[in-house]
Amino acid sequence: MTKTDGLVEQIQTFDFLASYKVERDPRIKIKLQALHHLQCGKSIQEVSDITLYNTKSVKLWLENFIAFDYEGLIERDGRGRRPRLAVEDEEKFKDALCKMQDKKGWEYRSIGNTRSAGGSI
Q: Splitting the chain (121 residues) into consecutive groups of 10 residues, what average pLDDT does each group show?
């Protein structure tokens, strides 16, 4: 008996297929499908081969489902790379960029017409 066998026993009562049919988020659907395969007796390695996700990810889905129930499958905010420019600094950056463009007399093109920063053409 492996460590994951004890975890898989804890999810035997949940109906993953019914939840899969009504879920709209494709990422959660993949997780529900993976958990259903585990529930049916497949190993974590087999499920990882089916879903094309790493075995660590599949085990993490299982642990999150056990710890937090269905909410554990939902991805939390704050995932991914942080922006280089803070949201509160974006407006200041846009203003500074517009001022620089006005000083240089740069041109910008809109659909169908061309304008100069200093006036009309």
A: 77 93 95 96 96 96 94 85 85 87 66 54 52
